[in-house]
Amino acid sequence: MTCQGEHGIPLPKVTKWTKDNKAVTVGADYQFKPGKTSDQEILAIKNFGINHLGVYECVVANKLGSSSCAINVRGKYQQWREGYM
After folding, report:
1. Domain containing residue 43
2. Any domain includes 82
3. Nearest-angstrom CA–CA distance, 20 and 54
4. What is the spatial distance between Cα 6 and Cα 66, in angstroms, rounded to a whole number?
């Protein structure tokens, strides 16, 4: 997912990511990568699975204030069965 703080002076930067209102941190599941511009940040999810479904929110801020945007990542679990294709 890409988050961008594109409007404002000074240019807003990504300050926080959350999933279901809990802070997302770098680890086995998540990685933060720089975007194409200095005001972008990418949240990469490694080995995406059902445990990654939920509401993700990105917060951007500068010294004058902040803004956020959320996305609900939804899906269904389909159990794999031998011989199923």
Report:
1. 2-73
2. no
3. 6
4. 12
Q: Give residue 51's region: left, alpha or beta (phi > 0; psi -120 to 50).
A: alpha
pLDDT for 5 equals 84
Domain count, the chain: 1
CA dihedral 64, 13, 68, 30 (to 10 degrees): -150
From first to last of its 85 residues, the chain has per-residue pLDDT tens of 999 887 888 999 999 999 999 999 999 899 999 999 888 999 999 989 889 999 999 999 999 999 999 999 998 776 666 665 5
Residue 9 counted as domain residue:
yes
Residue written as tokens 């951007």?
A: 60
